[in-house]
Design a protein that fits this description.
This protein has helices at about 10-25, 65-70, 130-140, 155-165, 185-200, 245-250, 295-310, 370-390; strands at about 5-10, 30-35, 75, 80-85, 90-95, 100, 105, 110, 125, 145-150, 170-175, 200-205, 210-215, 220-225, 230, 235, 240, 260, 270-275, 280, 285-290, 320-325, 330-335, 340-345, 350-360, 360-370. The chain is α/β, with parallel strands linked by helices. It has a 5-stranded parallel beta sheet with strand order 3-2-1-7-19. Strands 9-16-10-11-12 form a 5-stranded parallel beta sheet. Helix 4 links the parallel strand 10 (about 145-150) and strand 11 (about 170-175). Bound molecules: flavin-adenine dinucleotide. One of its GO terms (cellular component) is cytoplasm.
Length: about 400
Amino acid sequence: MSAPFVIIGAGQAAAQAAVSLRAEGYGGEIVMLGDETHLPYQRPPLSKAFLAGEMSADRLELKAPNFYPDSGIDVRLGTRAVRLLPAEKAVETDGGIRIPYERALIATGTRARALPVPGADLQGVFSIRTIDDVARFRAAAQAGAKLVIVGGGYIGLEVAAKANKMGLDVTVVEGQPRVLARVACEDISRYAAGLQLAHGVRVLTATGVATLTGTDRVSGVELSTGAVLPADLVLSAVGAVPNVELAAEAGLAIENGIKVDAAARTSDPCIFAAGDVASFPSALYGRRIRLESVQNAIDQAKAAAKSMLGGAVAYDPVPWFWSDQYDTKLQIAGLLDGFERTETEGDVAAGRFCVRYFAGERPIAVCSVNDPRSHMLARRALAAPLAQGSAA
Ligand SMILES: Cc1cc2nc3c(=O)[nH]c(=O)nc-3n(C[C@H](O)[C@H](O)[C@H](O)COP(=O)(O)OP(=O)(O)OC[C@H]3O[C@@H](n4cnc5c(N)ncnc54)[C@H](O)[C@@H]3O)c2cc1C
């Protein structure tokens, strides 16, 4: 009897890979190792409806609990993979168990980047990556409390919107000259900052954080200007880092994440990787990319499952992403880094518009604000060269 397929991680990509392995007809044993104590769940609501208590935990679950035993998927929660041994084709867990594998999939995702300032370990300083993080944050987030959010990216702004609704007094501090600076053009940044200001959230841009002050508990945020913002709670939202350590220690190639090819294969023929942790070659953008999105976790995991079974796949997606802030839905199709000019269409004042991004004459991305039709059309249009390429 051959060894199982072992999936390391129990998040979005892991769950999809298990589902897809069964859908592709794999009848062998599947073992899934997850270091959290929750069955695979979706993370986007953690900074949206779930944060505000508008959604219950069971609605986060990607599959009903009985799906896994019914499908013969052995999910081992609270179990961390601590060593990957490619030469022996085995994974070691923190409980000292050695599990042999026929094929392994690494789907370990990312973790919140630590805030690199003194005081970041004080009580009252949070990041939001897991259900348990949200539970801790919610327990401390009393109405009227002063919350300082460090980082004006998607997660920072989404939490600002919900915390504002929960009655907290919110300030966002962003080091770049504008919010969403790495992921959007000035029009979108201005719009997103304006939304926060209109709801009474303070937004400080081009402002660094020097220190978090307090004895045991955080009580203030000292800015690079020397000013101190009083704070009962601080949310660190300064990005994520891929969990590559297991792969790196096993000698797998790493390049901004675990390096995989278009078939989700790592540098070891029996080990695959998918989701936030993997970087892959994009023909569409002419370089290696690593995406942190639900779209990528699902689609790359589907590709990985096929590939693990020996099927031919060439994963080369049009990336897409969304963010909900107040009543605004922001949707992004494509990647906009490297854009040279933009065209804005629609009614910015009415909050329904889209921005098209071009590198030379080539469209590379579209950001839509409350304009789902433009988003869908953009996804199709951006995919057209890929479809032509595969037909050629
Ligand atoms: C607050 C928040 C909001 C988001 N909002 C959006 C959004 O609006 N739209 C969007 O497209 N994307 C959003 N994302 C991103 C999206 O959730 C991720 O891209 C997606 O979850 C990635 O899936 P994954 O399976 O690669 O990783 P994850 O879902 O993070 O799963 C990885 C799992 O592996 C576990 N693990 C790590 N190391 C080990 C180990 N050694 N042994 C065992 N288990 C291990 C981790 O604890 C985790 O449970 C959001 C993310 C967060 C945190």
